[in-house]
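Example record

One chain of 399 residues, shown exactly as stored in the release files.
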Amino acid sequence: MFERHLTPTLLRFASAFPVVAITGPRQSGKTTLSRAVFPNKPYVSLEDPTERAFAQEDPRGFLNRYPHGAIFDEAQRWPDLFSHLQGMVDADRSVGRFVLTGSQQFGLLSGVTQSLAGRVGMTRLLPLSLAELPALIRDTRSVDHLMLQGGYPELCSQLHLPTDWFASYVATYVERDVRQVLNVQNASSFQRFLRLCAGRTGQLLNLSALAGEAGITHSTARAWMSILEASDLIYLLPPYHRNFGKRVVKSPKLYFIDVGLACWLLGIRDSNVLALHPLRGALFETLVVSEFLKIRMNAGLPSDLYFWRDNNGLEADLLFEHANQLQIIEIKSGQTVTPDYIRAGQKSARFAGLEALPPWLIYGGDESYLRSGLRVIGWRDIHSLTQINLLSEQTEKDK
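Predicted structure tokens for this chain:
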């Protein structure tokens, strides 16, 4: 089993809330993690038709078996669970009694919002970050190999070939999740939409153009995009909300949370092909943005990540706030830091003026050092940034 960095957050929430919920995409390791962190709790899978039938026919008798709490896996499969738990935790506010997991974030969120607000600590478990990979895998494989593989635990355990595993994963996702929620009749249309989204990873989201190319209406494209986002397959990075007196882009940027899935959807099956692919830069940017998202989620924090682009040509690939200032991050996929990279990194922070901290440049090479006022960070060293406050502390030391 991989050491998951969400573990301390789960333990912290279990000491403060009666209920802890773990959401995230299918196969991200929610069941394995919940049973490892809470080994003394009974485990109940609501995917089991026998258990689910018992719960629906006699909810009181079903829950009376677990007076001290339990792990309810795929909790959204029994929507009435949330209202029953509300009564139980209101009668006994003991912390850490119940653990809920669910692949459909929207299913869990609707139940929590209606019944368990204020009683539950919400967490998200995304696929493995670079920090969670064993050092042998992280240090011996090329960035192209790791981008092809992605971060789903089964693939990182070398139990499957990515080409076989992703094909099954997409088919299962469409059949079980999308059809249940959207009642999509034409699965091939949705899969085409999904592949078109992969071709736009790292780009501004233009729903009208995406809908036109997919041959669907704008409203359908919006609904399908919401499902992809809610099921943690994609992440929409918002533009930074302050305009600094400039006209700024207001559309979000689309990223796949798992770069391996994006590669598979694009038909990239070999690292040699990826190395020369026209979207390699966007895929590397996808890897980096998802790493920072995982850092935030594992710490139990809101994402609070942004990008910047204005009509004067100033652009920052990624930024976040720290102590009333902005940490600007430029992302380049090349393995060698060129003068152009340095100039781009320096330029990326100009829009924020004195509010910008010394910018960072994350690139596809291995070395990390200071150069011309930039902190240059090789992709392998992202793994050491295991918590967002470590990023901030390092910035403070360099000032």
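Notes: The domain at 306-398 is CATH 3.40.1350.10 (Trna Endonuclease; Chain: A, domain 1).
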